[in-house]
Model the fold of this input.
Amino acid sequence: MTPTEQQMAAATALGSPAKAWLRALDLTAPIAANPRRILSTVIDEMAERQGNAPALLSRRECLTYRELAARSNQYTRWALAQGLGKGDAVCLLMENRPEYMAIWLGISRAGCAVALLNTNVTGDSLSHCIDIVAPKYLIASASLVEKLIFGRELSCLPKVWVHGAGYHLYDRIDIDVERYSGQALRVCETVPVTTGDRALYLYTSGTTGLPKAANISHARLMQWSLWFAGMMNTGPADRLYNSLPMYHSVGGVLATGSVLASGGSIVIRDRFSASRFWSEIVEFECTLFQYIGELCRYLLHTPAHPAESLHRIRICCGNGLRPDIWEAFKSRFGIPRILEFYAATEGNVSMFNVEGKPGAIGRVPPWLAHRFGAALVRVDVEKEAPARNADGFCIPSDTDETGEALGRIREDTSNPGNRFEGYKSDSDSRAKVLRNVFEPGDAWFRTGDLMRKDAQGYFYFIDRLGDTFRWKGENVATSEVAEAICAFPGVREAIVYGVAVPACDGRAGMAVVSGIGELMLAQLRAHLRRSLPGYAQPLFLRLRHDMAVTETFKYTKGALVREGYDPAAIGDALYFDDRERGAFVPLDAGLYERIQTGQLRL
Done:
């Protein structure tokens, strides 16, 4: 028996947690040996095997496996007829719906990379996201196409296709695609797309700046889909409820691929609704659901619902379920199993809390340590970078000591999870790679996330490093928010950061602004609502005459973060964005108390 076989035998003897790892390993092992088998061909296989079984369900439309395969084939033929192929990009701006997945499955099969645009992004940020991938075509739903009018002029000039009625300036792709057959693609009309080719661009803010377009290969899609299928042990009898945005890796790939790869069904909701969550879970007979931390907190804060104890959920999977609500969430709703995980869309660090330890984001079993090259290193807080010893190498964090998570980059064709596929921009890619970490010449991916690891090997998420904070399940780049504020007439300077708020996951946005008077706050608020998605609009404002800087002319952001938004400790004028009243209101002691005690939902 080889050492690997011994490890596998030992893992089998450990019980169900180890079996989840083994299922994931078994399902993903053939990926490297079958380069022509991509997610689209997996759907074809399911269409042959169980064609009339439901694949994607929603209030708007439903697609069986046969219909999903046929619809995606129509989009493949449409893309090929347009002359699109390898190296070309197509942007997709559309709400959650089954057609969304059929579009990118089909177009990516033609060799293109489909850029999944965030439907919340607007103005200059949206223009930036389009420009950086330089698409030849842009597909937008009729309800969202007007977003393209606002913002700066595009550097590229993609042909725009609209999906749906109600907008007459552009050709309708939903009509044009009907000209093409949905029959199985013949060998002579397909291009040789392999797992090594790029399938998607997914946008991430990383740790600084405007959104970046992360390269996502077909191998990565297969790895995500099959790995999570193994971890959750999905099968044809499963139905997964997905109310997360499909432009994200979690809602658009992990949730969908993990169930479709095993013949189950996905129930797609256009957006999350706490009041309708459990009734729809029961109505659609769901056995799984995907979450982010804030989703769980919202559900826990809703009044009791008759359906919350009538469901058939066997497991929920996601990230960001905080330790302060873990047990309460599991107990109130009778969730048999929670699979918390950590992964970066563009990175190579992933962890899975298979054992269900409250608050942990994952643990790497010792017998799999050779496959998961993750490490925590000490951080130089002032430099916002890993600290180095006298020899120039990084310093590993001690047990329970906070450090930045790094992932070892290996050129291992048998394990796509170890790769760092980078971004559309080479300079962005280079900035995420740290070299000479523990030995000369080694290369590691910087996650920008601070974690700690306990004596049992469990990892716990602490915070984001640098200028990005997380709010409402989204990463917010402070530089992007500050740029939007400074674009308002009269503003001289703006410092943006995240502040901790009791009973809320992540950090709420706060901005210190100089050069604007109180009488302009209504106009500033309207400007920010036009310029930024809701989760990026700062909840707290602090008005100052000028900004304090260090001797090297850097803003003293650290001190501002520590001061927070307590009016008793701050002499500057403070304001809170009251979403119910639709205005910035003075933040006095009474309002501060309501926020601190959780009386005011943010």
